[in-house]
Amino acid sequence: MLEDNKLYLFCQDEVFEYETYLLVKEFFPKKEIMRQKNETGAFLICEYTKAHTKITYSFDGKSDGLELDVLEESTDEKAYKNSHMHNLYVALWTITGIRLPWGSLTGVRPTKFAREMIGEKKTEEEILRFYEEDRFVSKDKAKLALSIAQRETAIISDTDGFDGYSLYIGIPFCPSRCLYCSFLSGPVLKWQNRIEEYLSCLEKELSFVSGAFAGKPLNTIYIGGGTPTALSAEELKLLMEMIRRHTETASLAEFTVEAGRPDSITKEKLTVLKQAGVSRISVNPQTMNDETLRLIGRNHTVAQTVDAFHMAREAGFDNINMDIILGLPSEGCKEVEKTMKELSILSPDSLTVHSLAIKRSAGMKDWVKDLKDNEEVFADDPAKMMEIAYGYVDQMGLKPYYLYRQKNIAGNLENVGFAGEGKIGIYNILMMEEVQTIVAIGAGTVSKRVDSPTQIGRCDTAKDIALYMDNIDDMIARKQELFRF
Ligand code: SF4
After folding, report:
1. Residues 349 and 387 placed together within one structural domain of the fold
2. From 14, 63, 151, 227, which residue has the greatest number of CB atoms within 10 Å?
3. Residue 407 Cα, ligand 1 centroid: separation in angstroms?
4. Would you say the CB of residue 86 lies under 6 angstroms from ligand 1?
5. Range(s) of the domain holding residue 301
6. What is the tens place of the pLDDT at every residue in 113-143?
7. What is the mean pLDDT of the chain?
8. Looking at residues 24-33, what average pLDDT do you find?
9. How far is the CA of 284 from the centre of ligand 1 (A)?
10. CB of 261 closer than 6 A to ligand 1?
């Protein structure tokens, strides 16, 4: 990394250090932010006092200092932090001339403010004013957040919320590893001989769950990964039988299986899932361009995606989701246009539009580092690509129903789930909005006990498949500790 690609960031108040870093990174996505004081290179120093926010900076040939009064002096830590984040945004906007679509919001769930305000009976105008004036969110994103929060509120009220629970089952195997993947996933061929053992570990966990949650309504089941359909039809059948043995489905509103990779889907597997009562599946293209699929190591073709989709329809699935990623290497507006055109013809019941976020554990991180300096593989107009995708989604009659943001997300944008009438992914809302306990079983999963909006406990399992299996009793003991009712 070149020295002039570094920006030294020093934050005098440790309490805000992380939020400050996140917001600075949004303004300088291409710079490596070094969290230390160094006034010889490019730097930004943030000092927070009770009455002022002081920013001193030097980068790209500009250097100066700015001092802004806090909105109101307060002893309340949250108000104090909000005031400084507000000032930091104003300072960075003044210095760079850049406005961010999500303004000063850096969190994963920007819709939660709208949901809280709906709960407090605030009007639409008050909610939009909060986003646009207090947090500098663009008009379009503010409206998006509000419409999603309204849909989420209606769906959540139809579930058992805090009184019920949802079950997540992780299958950490895939046909091959995608370049952008940061999930726990092992090559299914390599693990073939231990899959039965993995399934029996899942059964041990399921047996604990059915005892601990006896009498509590189970609202949704979500099998993700990895690629659950990387399992053979026989293995999937075993898994489905286990689930049937250990769960009470009277209150079940949704049963999703992320079929994911089209190259793992067969007629036989779809029949197993359908017969087991799976109500929603995902067939994920990510892109409808063969060249990109090759580049990102997906090892399947667009034709296989189309075939898998039709196969799922023929098997009787009337709720099929598809996932796409905007901003993949070598893709620009033209490629997004092609993807969206082809998806409109397939007409999935829901579509999740992701913006590429390069995670630390993804192979893409090293791949990018290895590129020659002048090789530009990422388009620099993520907002335009998103506009194209959202335009098609609208024509397809799908409405936004859940949203989340990630670190290092392209263009300060977002990931949004869109769905047709009655096809909303309920689990996605319950999980993302933290309004229900999610018991997660399998390697590399995180369970969340949600008793109220402010009482949330977590426990995880080993992020290594072999470690998970070898220590299954410990994995269950962690859950016993979290789920003492
Ligand atoms: S299919 Fe999904 S989980 Fe599997 S390697 Fe690709 S991104 Fe990762």
Report:
1. yes
2. 227
3. 19
4. no
5. 158-479
6. 999 999 999 999 999 999 999 999 999 999 9
7. 92
8. 90
9. 10
10. yes
